[in-house]
Design a protein that fits this description.
It is a single chain. The chain has 280 residues and is of the alpha/beta class. The protein has two domains: 115 residues, Rossmann fold, CATH 3.40.50.10170; 125 residues, Hypothetical Protein Tm841, Chain: A,domain 3 (2-Layer Sandwich). The protein is built from eleven helices and 13 strands. The radius of gyration is 19 Å and the shape is globular. The two termini are 25 Å apart.
C-alpha cells in the first residue's frame, strides 16, 4: 500500500526534511488589506515580520480553500492508495475540518485526517513520524496508532512577548491581555482542549523562559529519550541559546530549532519563544 503524508504550512518543518520525506503541503495564508500571501510560497517568514512593522493593522489569516485541498488530494490519488493528513489544532483553525469535509468527495484514495491539537513543530513532529512510518511500509492504522501514542507524551509551551497580537486575533480575551500589559506579565501559554490558554502567569521574560526550560529539563532528567524543538518568532539567536544550554546539560537528546511562521506569528507576535518535546 502506497501512503502519502500531507500537512499544512503551519507545521513549519525545515524544507530539507520536507524534501527528504516527500511530505505534501497545503498552505495557509496571511491577508494584508486585500492582498493574500500563501506562507512559504508568496511570502517568507522574514518578509512577513518586516511587513508587519510597516502596516497599521495586523494581517488576517486564512485557511486553505476546499478547492485547493480537493485539487491536492486528487493529485495524490493518481499515485497513492492512502494519505495521512495532519493539521493544526481544530480549536484555532478550520483547516482540519475542511480536510474532513473534502475527504469523502475524493475517489481512488483513502484519506485519514488527523487533528494534531497543536501547531508549529509540535504538529511537525507528528508529520515527520508519520512520514518515516509510511516509508517503512506501515499501514495507515499503525501510523495513526503511533500518532495517538505521541499525543500522550507531547508537551508544548510558549511565551508571547506582546499579548496584543493574541488579543486582537481573538485567541486571548481582552481582559487577559490588558492585565498582562499592565503588570508586564509574560504568561506561559499552552494548548488545552485544542485552544491556546495561559498555563501560568509570570512577571518577566527571563522567568517565563526559565519555567519552560525547567519543565523540559525535569522530563529529560527522568531518563526519557526526548525529541525537542526550540521555536522562535524572528529571533533565532534566542532559540539557539536555549538549545545550546539544553544540549550542554543533555547531550544525548535529539534537538532542533524551528520557527513561528507568518500565520502563527500573526497571533503570537515577534519575539515569541517556545519549546515542544515528546518521548521517542
Amino acid at each position: 500500500m502506497k501512503i502519502a503524508v500531507m500537512s499544512d504550512s503551519t507545521a513549519y518543518i525545515p524544507e530539507k526534511l520536507i524534501d527528504q520525506h516527500n511530505i505534501h503541503m497545503v498552505p495557509l495564508s496571511v491577508v494584508f488589506s486585500d492582498d493574500a500571501y500563501r506562507e512559504g510560497i508568496d511570502i517568507t517568514t522574514e518578509e512577513f515580520y518586516q511587513k508587519v512593522k510597516e502596516v497599521e493593522e495586523l494581517p488576517k489569516t486564512s485557511q486553505p480553500s476546499i478547492g485547493m485541498i480537493t485539487e491536492k488530494l486528487e493529485e495524490l490519488a493518481e499515485s497513492y492508495d492512502a494519505v495521512i493528513s495532519i493539521h493544526l489544532s481544530s480549536g484555532i483553525s478550520g483547516t482540519y475540518q475542511a480536510v474532513v469535509s473534502t475527504a469523502g468527495m475524493i475517489e481512488g484514495i483513502d484519506v485519514y485526517p488527523y487533528d494534531s491539537e497543536l501547531s508549529c513543530m509540535g504538529q511537525g513532529f507528528y508529520v515527520l513520524e508519520a512520514a518515516e512510518l509510511a516509508q517503512a511500509g506501515k499501514s495507515p492504522e499503525a501510523i495513526i496508532e503511533r500518532l495517538d501514542d505521541i499525543k500522550q507524551s507531547i508537551r508544548a509551551y510558549f511565551m508571547a512577548d506582546d499579548l496584543s497580537h493574541l488579543q486582537r486575533g481573538g485567541r486571548l480575551t481582552g481582559a487577559q491581555a490588558l492585565v498582562g500589559s499592565l503588570l508586564q506579565v509574560k504568561p506561559v501559554l499552552h494548548f488545552v482542549d485544542k485552544k491556546i490558554v495561559p498555563f501560568e502567569k509570570i512577571r518577566t521574560r527571563k522567568k517565563a523562559l526559565n519555567r519552560i526550560m525547567g519543565m523540559l529539563e525535569a522530563d529529560a532528567k527522568e531518563g526519557k529519550e526526548l525529541k525537542v524543538a526550540f521555536i522562535h518568532a524572528n529571533n533565532e539567536a534566542a532559540a539557539a541559546e536555549l538549545k545550546d544550554k539544553f544540549d550542554a546539560d543533555f547531550p544525548n537528546m535529539d534537538t532542533m530549532i524551528s520557527y513561528f511562521g507568518p500565520v502563527i506569528g500573526t497571533h503570537l507576535g515577534e519575539g515569541a519563544l517556545g519549546a515542544v518535546w515528546y518521548k521517542k
